[in-house]
Amino acid sequence: MLFEAYKTESFHDEMFLDDGTVRPEARLLLESLQSLEEGHLQRSQLAAERMLVQMGITFNVYGEAAGTERIFPFDLIPRIVPAAEWDRIERGLKQRIRALNAFIDDIYHDQKILKDKVIPEDVIRTAASYRPQVHGINPPGGVWCHITGTDLIRHGDGEIYVLEDNLRVPSGVSYVLENRDLMKRTFPEVFEGLRIRPVDEYPSHLLETLESVAPASCDREPVVVLLTPGMYNSAYFEHSFLAQKMGIPLVQGSDLSVEDGIVWMQTTKGPRRVDVIYRRIDDDFLDPNVFRADSLLGVRGIVDAYRLGNVTLANAPGNGVADDKVVYAYVPDMIKYYEGEDAIIPNVPTYLCWRDADRQHVLQNLDKLVVKAANESGGYGMLIGPHSSKAEQDDFADRIRNNPRNYIAQPTLALSRVPTLVGDRLEGRHVDLRPYVLYGKDLEVLPGGLTRVALRKGSLVVNSSQGGGSKDTWVLAGGVNGN
Amino acid sequence: MATDTRPLLSRVADSLYWMARYMERAENVARLLEVNLHLQLDLPLDGNQWQPVIDTCGESALFRKRYGEATQESVVAFLAQDRDYSNSITSCLFAARENARSVRDTISSEVWEHVNGIYLRVLKAYAQPPEDLSPEIFRDLRLAGHMFQGITDATMSHNEAWHFVRLGRQMERADKTSRLLDVKYFMLLPSATGVGTPYDDLLWSAVLKSASAFEMYRQCCGRISPREVVNFLVLDPDFPRSIRHSIHRAADSLDVIREGTVCDSVRMLSEVRQELDEMDVDVMIRSGLHEYLDRLQIRLNAVGAGLQRDFFALLSQSQTQTQSVGGE
Fold it and tell me: Of A56-65, A186-195, B90-99, which range is least confident?
């Protein structure tokens, strides 16, 4: 039996209550899992993995030979989000991104929030991802964060928190779509009786969003392209996938050129004008004239064309300032400041090491806290106190003392768990959730998101580069099964 | 006539063209090996036909340096498995897959999954030493080549992108058939003029089979004769691997791509087409088949260079670089 020895082990389990009874929203799923004949789940799992290889749904690992991409492991047991809970998440995300967008616009214009001393000026000035080069730019519709992938986690107290905002070039949405497709192909029987909200419409909504932010001067159907660093980038599959699903050209820096402030792409019939660029290249590499001069991936002059209003870049360059982990700590204050509301989804309590009192506390509790570099992502530059050695703690203590601005600390979170196939039975594994939000004419949250799962027993690191996998995320429609 | 207005990037056109060429090339090498493995079984013990296979590929010097004597094992190792040789089956499939991967947004998912699938299958089959390699894999590869054509035809709109795929396939075919004939004719010629030996028929049949042409040749020409074989493989208007047929299809595609306007590559290719239409096989043989085919190959290469200038140019250094950025 799959669930015979299953234990929630004092963690919040997304499928079972503490006393071992199934949560109401997961009852139908449990029943269909229990009715499977022995070995069925394992066979479906293998079939799904084979399909991923055959379909080339893979990511590149830097430093490994070309032609040897790896699959992002996929686990068949979905994570279920009931309708009422999703409703709150959706409202919370919209509120948060509206505020973050207002913050970024403010930072690159009047900086009222600094003048009003809601956020110390120093925090912004010292943020590595602050880009003074984009000061004064007015993106169409005032939208900076066109595509966001916010990381949410559920702590042991059952509450959902925002862990990171990811306003630059968030990835992973292609896996949301592919995971659902894979589930339907390999495991159709579990969908029965459930009303799961579809995710397939994301590419058309993304395209609508991109078209809606075309430059005001564009008086024809806007030409939208997706700019990729190229096929050796770890997220190349996603870039090609989204371009294909939207039916727009997938371009590299070498395909584009800027003349007289206008962006052109080189086609077999000569140059064609480009209006909107969904760029999946980091700010640093976007334009050697403005950012890193040694970048060969970007397009010389593209920021100039953007400043002139001749092309729209999505996401807007400069957003990274709000991804800084010290700035993150102030997001609830931003929501209050710009929206006049309390945050619907709370932040994880955060210690800022440049504050003397906070630093003292962090240094004394390195074995209990999670320490993060303010400007890293992807699970890098991180110390997980309870899982760390004395030497690692000492190393981080030095780093914090040398550069306190660059470090924050948070309590070690007891991420919630979801049953996950391990060998021939199910065990709880920790998960997070990254929903995707589009911001064009209006805000729109994709019902679902990427549930990442730490496949190693006890691990809290869900990143694909470090042993993470993913699951399908089922947001239930309101009504019979959803509540 | 293509009706779509979606612009095709020069880089994408280039990759589509080369994806098709490399798939076609892998199939041709596989067929050559498959035919020769069969032929070997019918020949007397001293009739080693492996060196000519290397000659057909135009790689005698490189092969001698790396492998020495041409045996079944060494030739299979070189042409099928050698990753350091850029035209081995493995290298061709790798290149086809890399090109396909770079244009995944333009080709259909079915095309990508097919190219990816055959690459992975071959990689698995080649994990063993050449002497254990089952000839079945060459048959699989030949079928995979046919399927590639079928899938591109059946799942992609016959738009500009598709025409670049067809252009690549046909240019590669014309080139491969001319090479095959050039080498074999040169080798077989002495006995072709004298009294035939039992092996002449066998060897000429192998030439036809190497171009998948044996059955269709029989239907139209009957008895095997060098003159008829040359006529069939160069000038037959209907056989899909004859040079003339390939050039016609290539030129048709180029005309569609160019939408009636003239440029270097269009002009050169239609000259080649016209000349093939007017050519007589006896004139060709009398004035030297080798010289004729040699000149043809030079002209096809010039067309390739013309395509580069007219459509693919503006490729920059960043196309092949592997810098890691982007993504959270």
Answer: A56-65
At the topology level, CATH places domain A351-411 in Dna Ligase; domain 1 (3.30.1490)
Query: Which whole number is the average pLDDT over B206-226?
Result: 88
The answer to whether A61 contacts chain B (CB < 8 Å) is: no
Phi, psi of A259 (to 5 degrees): -130, 130
* Residue B325 to residue A285, Cβ atoms within 8 A: yes
Amino acid at the residue B251? A
For residue B186, which amino acid is it? Answer: F
Q: How far is A28 from chain B (nearest CA, A)?
A: 34
> pLDDT by residue (tens digit) across A200-253?
999 999 999 999 999 999 998 999 999 999 988 888 999 999 999 999 999 999
Closest CA relative to residue A376, chosen from A323, A417, A422: A323
Q: Does A232 touch chain B (CB under 8 A)?
A: yes
∠A279-A282-A283 over CA atoms, to 5°?
A: 100
Most B CBs within 10 Å, among A267, A273, A275, A464, to test the B interface: A267
Q: Mean pLDDT throughout A377-392? A: 83
Run of H or E including B27: helix B10-42
Q: Where does chain A hold its CATH 3.30.1490.270 domain(s)?
A: 351-411
- The whole-number pLDDT of residue B40 equals 79
pTM of the model: 0.89
Task: Calculate helix-pair angle for B264-278, B289-307, nearest 10 degrees.
Answer: 160
What backbone phi and psi angles, to 5 degrees, belong to A474? -105, 110
Q: CB of A325 within 8 A of CB of A372? A: yes
- pLDDT at residue A65, rounded to an integer: 67
Q: Which residue in A402, A400, A359 sits closest to A381, CA to CA?
A: A400
Does the pLDDT value for residue A336 go beyond 60? yes
* DSSP for A101-137, written as a single string: HHHHHHHTTT-HHHHTTSS-HHHHHT-TT--GGGTT-
**CA–CA distance, A406 with A432 (Å, rounded to integer):** 24
What's the ipTM? 0.81
Over range A57-68, report the average pLDDT. Answer: 70
Contact A173, A446 (CB under 8 A): yes
- As a whole number of angstroms, the distance between CA A260 and CA A263 comes to 9
What's the pLDDT score for residue B207? 85
Q: Reduced to 3 states, what is the DSSP secondary structure of residue A347?
A: strand
What pLDDT score was predicted for residue A482?
43
Rounded CA separation B82/B69 (Å): 16
pLDDT, residue A172, reads 93
Which residues 133-152 in chain A show a CB within 8 A of chain B?
149
**Taking 80 as the threshold, does the pLDDT of residue A68 lie above it?**
no
- Taking any CB pair shorter than 8 Å as contact, residues of chain B touching chain A are 6-13, 94, 97-98, 101-106, 109, 112-113, 116-117, 119-120, 160, 257, 311, 314-319, 321-328
B18 to chain A, minimum CA–CA distance in Å? 15
CB pairs under 8 A between A and B: 134
| pLDDT for position B90 | 93
Residue type, B319: Q
The pLDDT of residue A155 is above 80: yes
The amino acid sitting at A41 is L
Which among B6, B12, B324 is the nearest to A233, CB-wise? B324
Task: Spell A192-224 as b/e; 16+ CB within 10 A means b.
Answer: eebebbebeebbeebbebbbbbbbeebeeebbb
Are A421 and A77 in contact by the 8 Å Cβ rule? The answer is yes
Predicted pLDDT of residue A113: 97
Residue B3 has pLDDT above 60, yes or no: no
pLDDT value, residue B125: 83
Quote the minimal CA–CA distance from A434 to chain B in Å. Answer: 12
Interface residue A186 vs chain B (CB under 8 A)? no
